[in-house]
Amino acid sequence: MYQLFCDSNCELWHTTVKDLGLNLIRMPYIVGDDEYFYDMGENTDFKAFFDNMRKGATPKTAALNEYAYTEYFEPILARGEDIYYITFSHQMSGTFNAMKNVIAQLKEKYPEREIRFKDTKLISLGSGFVTYYGALKYKEGATMDELDAYLDEIIPHTACYFVVDDLTYLYRGGRVSGVARVVGNLLGIKPILHFNDEGKILNINKAKGRKKALDTLLGYMRDKGSELDKYKIYVLQADCQAEAESFIASIKAQFGELDIEIQPVGPVIGAHCGPGTIGLIFHCKER
After folding, report:
1. How confident is the model over 187-217, as pLDDT tens digits?
2. What is the C-alpha to C-alpha distance for residues 189 and 158, in angstroms, rounded to an integer?
3. CB-based contacts of 243, cutoff 8 Å, min separation 6
4. Would you say domain 157-283 falls under CATH 3.30.1180.10?
5. DSSP state string for 202-230
6. Most exposed among 37, 117, 157, 242, judged by the fewest C-beta atoms under 10 Å?
7. Edge-to-edge order in the sheet of strand 34-37
8. For residue range 223-244, what is the model confidence (pLDDT) as tens digits?
9. Spans of all domains in the chain
10. What does the DSSP 8-state code read for residue 287?
């Protein structure tokens, strides 16, 4: 028997995590002098978080240390169960170095136990999309090998796109230059970001104005979408609920009544993309 883990950077809603029976690893974020661990929206004040960013607050994120991973994993192994952990992209954080060190130590201590992890090569609800469908397989009784095979199949067919509203936050994270930030904000340039097959986030396009940027996302879904009526579609919004709802109306106008869920961007991801971000996740022919 094994236990299935996910982390809070997959951003599945807290009720979904509980319904799926997932073990949650909470990733930290820091506001001022206070450290928090994302609770998947259970008690999070999203509006206050993003309002503070608009006022100039600069929240930070951090990697988990080895002690934290040990605290999550060892009790499971000690009671005689194995572990399978579906992670966010290893390209996005150094936290996985600590995780791998802990796994190596725990395998020595519990040689009869198995610990596996799978890199979704995505973040936010891109990773959540993979985790959700992987968890359904887990609940159906999939073995570790069967879950491995299933995730290897679905990961390359999960598309994750973001439109950011203000280049300031990408500039702070080193994604755009200072000149590009100033010029882009003045001209209303909206970058479009995407995760490639290696799990790296790339600025793949740009559009002048929000409407054109969101229309571009619809174009990607039209050109790359696959089996859209079979899988969920996620729309993410960073304190721009009304605009996201309008975007969903545009999706339905083009593609019909699909299973679309709208969710807020959490503080860990939001610290990097900023308020006004909209994301779109869907099943695709290829990334």
Report:
1. 467 888 899 999 988 888 888 889 999 999 9
2. 26
3. 210, 237, 278
4. yes
5. EEEEEEESHHHHHHHHHHHHHHHB-STTT
6. 242
7. 34-37, 28-31, 60-61
8. 999 999 999 999 999 999 999 9
9. 2-155, 157-283
10. -
Q: Which residue has the higher pLDDT, 179 or 242?
A: 242
3-class state of residue 162 by DSSP: strand
Chain-centroid distance, C-alpha 197? 15
Residue with tokens 């054109």, as numbered in its chain: 212
Closest by CA position to 94, among listed 117, 72, 66, 70: 66
In whole angstroms, what is the distance from residue 94 CA to residue 154 CA?
Answer: 25
The listed CATH number (3.40.1390.20, 3.40.50.10170, 3.40.50.300, 3.40.640.10) that belongs to domain 2-155: 3.40.50.10170
- pLDDT reported for residue 204: 86
List the beta bridge partners of residue 5: 23, 85
Fold: same for 2-155 and 157-283: no
Q: How far apart are CA 3 and CA 97, in angstroms?
A: 21
Question: In terms of Cα–Cα distance, which of 123, 116, 115, 92 is closest to 236?
Answer: 123
- Cβ-proximal residues to 7 (8 Å cutoff; 6+ apart), any chain: 24, 25, 26, 27, 85, 87, 88
Residues across the chain: 287
CA distances from 82 to 59, 114, 188 (A): 35, 5, 50
Cα-Cα-Cα-Cα torsion 107, 103, 122, 202, nearest 10 degrees, comes to -130
Q: What is the pTM of this model?
A: 0.93
Please give the single-letter amino acid code of residue 231: Y
- Token pair for residue 204? 């793949």
